[in-house]
Design brief:
about 100 residues; alpha/beta; four-stranded mixed beta sheet; three-stranded mixed beta sheet; about 15% helix; about 30% strand; HesB-like_dom_sf; Fe-S cluster assembly iron-binding protein IscA
Amino acid sequence: MNIQVSELALAKMKWLIWQEQSTAPLAFRVISLTSGCGAPTFALEMTEPTPAFQTKRIDGVLFAWLPQDAKWMDGLVIDLNRENGKFSIYHPHPSFMSSCPFE
């Protein structure tokens, strides 16, 4: 599973986890928000991982997703926008997307 996360995004994620001061392990869940025929969009949420999730640890940060979203994870890119401090999550080459029946 190839997930690319920039050093800046990892630094902010580590800081966010540290701020939580949780005794339970925390992960960043990647949520696919696909709809219609457009490019896939994604969201992140910090959560406690459960056995239902598939996970991957990258430089000390745990990422989690549901098994049905696994096809979106390989090739995913996560970065941090320096101007607004928000995460940028995208898949540059989702080869598994089919053509749109609504076109």
